[in-house]
């Protein structure tokens, strides 16, 4: 189980990080990394042995099945030689967008993101979360790392796109490893609340019924949902309703009144007001804008 206080890096995306190089080698006994200050990320993954690295006076000993993500602009060097043959992979990549640190327990995994539409011209801000240092699932990562190293050895225009795609896959796997470590009780309750609200989003919200199904006090359930999504149960239900309403406006010929009823609004006028307040345009205008792009 991961330490909830483990440090992670929060990278703003898009764009995704860009691959520079990747390699695989076995360091002999006595091998030791030289000192340098690097302007890019240097991801080190150890398959066998132990590699000793210091970054800005912070020492790390990276054992088998562990990784260290060295950050751009920081000085790093090997503070001790390898005492056994040490098999490592390294991946250098560049990412020019904002980078911040965050504790593992504070990553808002379930926070809802706005879905793009056909009339958006720029993407919304999103984040990629990567561990700074710690254990990883090498069995999941090795096929990707080996394929990256193989393609890099015979790099050509034919496989360049695949190599960059594999970097994204590797980073996604590292993030998935972080996500799988989430074990807090509040997160489990949050997921239960979301599932219940999604299963009957068109029905009137009933706090007592929610509490009875969860076997939790409704205030506690609401706090858990807010902690991980930033929304109250009622606000989350309205979010689901609006997303379904947008889908129906785009892909069906149902009238605005029928769609309002389908997503749980008894009053068509109230549905229109709520939609305009949430989405920024009326349902009719949203449908026309979408059709104008088809």
Automatic annotation (TrEMBL):
- Gene Ontology molecular functions: DNA-binding transcription factor activity; sequence-specific DNA binding
On the tree of life, the source organism's domain of life is: Bacteria
Q: Which residues cross the membrane?
A: none
Under the heading InterPro entries, the entry gives:
AraC-bd, Homeodomain-like_sf, HTH-like, HTH_AraC, HTH_AraC-typ_CS, Tscrpt_reg_AraC-type_HTH
HTH araC/xylS-type domain residues: 191-289
Q: Which UniProt keywords apply?
A: DNA-binding, Transcription, Transcription regulation
A Pfam family that this protein carries is HTH_18
Signal peptide span: none
Name listed for the protein in its UniProt record: AraC family transcriptional regulator
Species of provenance: Paenibacillus thalictri
């Amino acid at each position: 189980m991961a330490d909830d206080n483990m440090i992670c890096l929060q990278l703003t995306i898009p764009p995704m990080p860009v691959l520079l190089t990747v390699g695989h080698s076995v360091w002999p006994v006595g091998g030791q990394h030289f000192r340098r200050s690097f302007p890019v990320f240097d991801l080190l993954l150890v398959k066998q042995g132990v590699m000793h690295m210091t970054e800005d006076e912070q020492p790390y000993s990276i054992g088998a099945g562990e990784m260290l993500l060295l950050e751009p602009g920081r000085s790093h060097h090997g503070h001790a030689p390898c005492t056994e043959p040490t098999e490592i992979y390294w991946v250098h990549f560049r990412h020019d967008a904002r980078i911040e640190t965050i504790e593992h327990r504070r990553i808002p995994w379930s926070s809802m993101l706005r879905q793009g539409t056909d009339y958006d011209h720029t993407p919304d801000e999103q984040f990629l979360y990567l561990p700074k240092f710690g254990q990883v699932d090498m069995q999941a990562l090795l096929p990707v790392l080996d394929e990256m190293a193989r393609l890099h050895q015979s790099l050509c225009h034919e496989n360049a796109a695949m190599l960059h795609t594999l970097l994204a896959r590797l980073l996604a796997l590292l993030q998935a490893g972080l996500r799988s470590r989430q074990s807090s009780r509040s997160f489990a309750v949050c997921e239960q609340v979301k599932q219940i609200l999604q299963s009957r989003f068109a029905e009137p919200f009933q706090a007592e019924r929610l509490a009875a199904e969860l076997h939790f006090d409704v205030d506690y359930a609401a706090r858990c949902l807010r902690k991980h999504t930033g929304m109250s149960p009622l606000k989350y239900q309205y979010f689901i309703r609006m997303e379904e309403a947008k889908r129906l406006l785009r892909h069906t010929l149902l009238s605005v009144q029928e769609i309002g009823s389908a997503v749980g609004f008894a009053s068509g006028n109230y549905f229109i007001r709520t939609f305009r307040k949430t989405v920024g345009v009326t349902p009719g205008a949203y449908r026309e804008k979408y059709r104008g792009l088809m």
